[in-house]
From TrEMBL:
<dbReference type="GO" id="GO:0005737">
    <property type="term" value="C:cytoplasm"/>
</dbReference>
<keyword id="KW-0472">Membrane</keyword>
<dbReference type="InterPro" id="IPR008166">
    <property type="entry name" value="Glyco_transf_92"/>
</dbReference>
<dbReference type="GO" id="GO:0016757">
    <property type="term" value="F:glycosyltransferase activity"/>
</dbReference>
<keyword id="KW-0812">Transmembrane</keyword>
<keyword id="KW-0328">Glycosyltransferase</keyword>
<keyword id="KW-1133">Transmembrane helix</keyword>
<comment type="similarity">
    <text>Belongs to the glycosyltransferase 92 family.</text>
</comment>
<keyword id="KW-0808">Transferase</keyword>
<dbReference type="GO" id="GO:0016020">
    <property type="term" value="C:membrane"/>
</dbReference>
<protein>
    <recommendedName>
        <fullName>Glycosyltransferase family 92 protein</fullName>
        <ecNumber>2.4.1.-</ecNumber>
    </recommendedName>
</protein>
<dbReference type="Pfam" id="PF01697">
    <property type="entry name" value="Glyco_transf_92"/>
</dbReference>
Length: 438
């Protein structure tokens, strides 16, 4: 009797898994990219599913959705696996199996590709984690794609609405692969890094680790960049003529090293109270000069916190903070091919390439930024403990006061991008509300 009851329970369990699989996949096929608001323990599954949900299958002149012909495959795998198999594992296996059949079985697969570089051929890629960065991402992607970045891996941490709505066109092109995760699901992987030297400190470090582990072998270089950071190749920069720099050519000499470290230049609010109508690089010229940066206490205390990097993926070892990664013994170099140390960073090398960090933007933007909070929580807490800085209005005013220079190279670079048709230039704001006051 007990054995019969167990068999009944097993059958019911498998049936429930199968039913949930069908419902889950069908719902997923209706979502836009990664529009799900559910917590995902493994965002990698969601990304693959979201991309496949845009596949169409052509057989005999008809097109069937992925959800319709993947269902039997899920049923087949559920029957063949142990009753305790995770639903996520089942779905992953089914998706992979169907993908192989579509690619190897002589059937035609539509990827909605409009000419993007295949993932496995992209020389340079970016990893990023965003939360509620609506309104900034199109210009950020357009500009960095023009610069030479061929692939973007974006981790969406609880944006509302999900960034999939805004980034759909880039996902369909294959330019962006998008991961949505919510709550504290990133902490479920904490056991992967639990040593005294490396552990997941925040959603940001978790996202970067997964980005490098999952996709590093696809690319020669991978970088980490936030939505308020824009790379400017100053070397050879001239206004007009639609001049296009080439990040790939800039990075090639670093193939012999662990990667390139670039330095931040902090940009001030430029008198804006409200978010201006034009693009970031065209509206904010107020910047912190080199000599002021060198006296800035936070920079003196945490110099690596004022850098960003492109890592040579063959030297990536284990884990990254938001600025650099742990390497296998190889060295990061700066723009002058000098090994990077704190002393070298304090010298401030940014004549050839720089990351312009629009750390405040307008008062309106900064208020939203404070509501979002830090993506690298432990770094923020450590800074506060050391009394380095608080990311409140005092910090806003401090950056404004110290940004005594004007930098137009970002403006020139973005205008050149517009001149080639790769970027959109919106007419600029006619007046800055607090110009001469802030």
């Amino acid at each position: 009797m007990i054995s019969r009851r167990k068999n009944i329970v097993v059958v019911l369990f498998i049936g429930l898994c199968f039913w949930q699989s069908i419902v889950w996949i069908k719902n997923l096929s209706k979502e836009i990219n990664l529009g799900s608001s559910d917590t995902l323990h493994n965002p990698g599954i969601s990304v693959e599913a979201s991309r496949d949900s845009h596949l169409t299958h052509s057989v005999g002149g008809t097109k069937d959705s992925l959800a319709e012909f993947i269902t039997p495959k899920i049923h087949e795998i559920v029957k063949s696996k142990d009753k305790e198999v995770l639903l996520e594992e089942t779905i992953r296996d089914a998706l992979n199996s169907v993908r192989e059949e579509l690619q190897d079985g002589g059937r035609h697969v539509h990827l909605h590709d409009v000419g993007s570089v295949p993932s496995t051929q992209a020389y340079v890629a970016l990893c990023s984690i965003f939360k509620n960065e609506h309104g900034h991402l199109h210009q950020w992607i357009d500009y960095h794609r023009w610069l030479g970045v061929e692939k973007f891996y974006i981790f969406d941490h609880e944006s509302s609405p999900p960034l999939s709505v805004e980034l759909e066109e880039f996902v369909l092109q294959g330019t962006v692969e998008l991961f949505y995760f919510s709550g504290t699901s990133w902490q479920l992987d904490a056991d992967r890094y639990n040593s005294s030297s490396r552990q997941f400190l925040s959603p940001q470090t978790w996202a970067y680790d997964n980005c490098f582990r999952w996709f590093g072998k696809r690319h020669v270089f991978m970088g980490m960049l936030d939505a308020d950071e824009y790379i400017v190749i100053r070397e050879g920069l001239e206004h007009g003529g639609g001049q296009r720099p080439d990040l790939r050519s800039f990075l090639r000499p670093y193939e012999a090293y662990g990667g390139l470290v670039m330095q931040w230049q902090l940009m001030g609010p430029s008198g804006h109270v409200h978010r201006p109508q034009s693009e970031t690089m065209l509206e904010y010229m107020q910047c912190m000069p080199k000599e002021v940066m060198q006296r800035f206490q936070e920079f003196r205390n945490v110099p690596f916190g004022f850098t960003k990097s492109f890592t040579n993926t063959k030297h990536y070892m284990d884990g990254c903070n938001p600025h650099v990664c742990a390497l296998d013994g190889a060295k990061y170099m700066n723009e002058d091919m000098v090994p990077v140390t704190e002393e070298v960073i304090w010298e401030v090398h940014w004549s050839r390439i720089v990351v312009q960090h629009y750390v405040t933007r307008s008062i309106q933007d900064f208020e939203l930024k404070m509501e979002r909070g830090s993506g690298h929580s432990k770094y923020a807490k450590l800074s506060k403990k050391l009394n380095i800085t608080g990311r409140g209005w005092n910090y806003f005013l401090l950056i404004n006061d110290l940004s005594t220079g004007e930098c137009h190279d970002g403006e020139v670079a973005y205008q050149n991008c517009c001149d080639t048709g790769a970027c959109v230039c919106t007419p600029r704001s006619k007046k800055k509300e607090l110009e001469g006051v802030l």
